[in-house]
Amino acid sequence: MAHPQMTAAAYRLVLVHPDSREVLVIWSAAGLTFPEIAIPCGARLAEHIQTFVRDKWGLHVLVLDTIQADGPHMACAFAELLLPDEGQFFRRLRLRDLDTALISEMQRARVQSLLDSTGHDQTPFARLGWIDEAVAWLHASTRDRISSKKDIRQYNAGADLALIRIRVEDGSGYWLKATGEPNKHERTITEYLYRECHEYIPRLVASRSDWNAWLMLEEGKMLPSPPYSSIESLTELRQAVTSMCEVQDRSSGVSLDILDAGAFDQATEAMRPRIPEMFDYLDEAMSLAAAMGETRLPTGRIRQLQRVFSDVLDDVEHLYLSEGIIHGDLRWEHILTGTGVAQFIDWSEPYLAYPVISLQQFLDMNRIGSEDVRNLIEEALIQEYCDFWAMFMDRELIEQSLIYMPILSLGSSLLGRGDWFYSDTRYDPLRLANAVKIAFRMDAAAEHPRLREALDDSE
Predict the structure, then answer these.
(1) Which of 18, 155, 216, 430 could be cross-linked to 163 through a Cys-Cys bond (beta carbons 3.0 to 4.6 Å apart)?
(2) pTM (2 decimals)?
(3) Pairing of strands 76-81, 9-16
(4) Are 209 and 191 in contact (CB under 8 A)?
(5) What's the pLDDT tens digit per position in 143-166?
(6) Pairing of strands 23-28, 9-16
(7) Per-residue pLDDT tens for 8-18?
C-alpha cells in the first residue's frame, strides 16, 4: 500500500451529491462555507477524511481527488456522497452559485472538470460514480454482493490510484488497488508473483488494464507494528523467512521474466556500473548534513567504503548465488499472516537481487525484547534461512554469503530503483537523511572482523 503524507495540512472538503451534482456547504459564523478538515502528520488523507466525516456528520463519502491551493484559497479534497439520502444538515448549491470567496477560479474550473469527467481521460478514479462500476466488477468477478456502501473503507485516492476495502454480504472483504506512475508496474509484478507462487500472495480474483487495477481477497491479517511480544515476533518472522525463501526459490533462474514483469535490476552486472554515482551521492548527502551542523564521514572514508562495496560484489559473484525477487519495502504492515504461511503485499519496490538481502531485512525488523532475546531470535531466523537453502546448495556457501549480507542490503536500499539519481527526488529530505544513515551503518558493517577477514583472504 502507498506511503502516507509526512506533513500536517488542512483541506476544504468539496463534497458533491451524486444525483444532482450539487456541492454541499455548511453554515458558519461567516456564512456558507465548505467544511475544513485538518489532516494530522503521517495520516493517509483519504482514510482520515472518510473517517472524520463519518464520525462528525454521519456521512459516508469517497474521496476522488485533491485540488491544489491557489493563493489565499486552501487546498481542496473533492469527494462524492455515497448515500444520497444523507447530508440533510448541509445545504446544496450549484457550482456556479458558489461565492467567489469560497473557491478560486482555478479551483472552480478544476471542480467543474471533475464533475464533467467520464473517465476516458486517463483519470478513472477522479470522477463521480466510479465506485459503482467497481462494485459491479467485483460482483461479476466473484458473484459476491456488497453488504452496504457504508462498509467501503478508503485508504488512498487520486486521479489514477486507489486503495479501498469492500465488505461483502458474508462478512469477508476484498481489496481493490490501482496504481499510476511511477508505480504502474505493481499490478504486473503482483500478477506474475501470484501465478508463480500463489500461496504467498493474497488471492487475486480479477485484474483490468484500463484502470491498472486488481482485486484481491482478504485472507490473512496484518500484524501490529511491531508485534505484541517476542514470542509473536519470533513465530511470525520465522514463518515470513520461510515463505519469502519459497517465493525466491520459485523466482530464481527466471531473471528476464522478473524484469519483464516490472522488477528493477539490482543484479551484480547492473549494480556495478552504478557504484561511483551511489557513493558520490553518499558523499554529497554527508556534505549537506555537515552544512547543517551534523556529524559526517570524511570523503576519504566514503571512498574506502566504495572499494569495500565493490570488493563485496566481487566476492559474492564468486559464490555463484542465484538472484531472485526482493521486496524492497519489507516491513510488518506488508506481511499478512493467519493462512499457515506469510503473504506479502505492496510490491511497488520489486528488485532482482540476492535473496540474502531479504534475510537482513527480517533481522532489521527484530526489535522486540531485550538484547539477549533479540539475539536469540536473530540466530533462529538465520538458522531458518540456512536450513531452507541448504536443500538446494552447499551450506558453506550459504553461511559465507551471510558475511556480505549487511553491506549488500545497505547497497540495495541505497540504489533502490536507480532512477532517482537524475530526478527531483535526489534532494528529497527523507532520501538524504536515509543516505546518511546508510553511510554510517555501512561504515560500521565494513569494520566487522569476519568481513575484513573475508575480503583480505580474497585479495
Answers:
(1) 155
(2) 0.91
(3) parallel
(4) no
(5) 999 999 999 999 999 989 999 999
(6) antiparallel
(7) 689 999 999 98
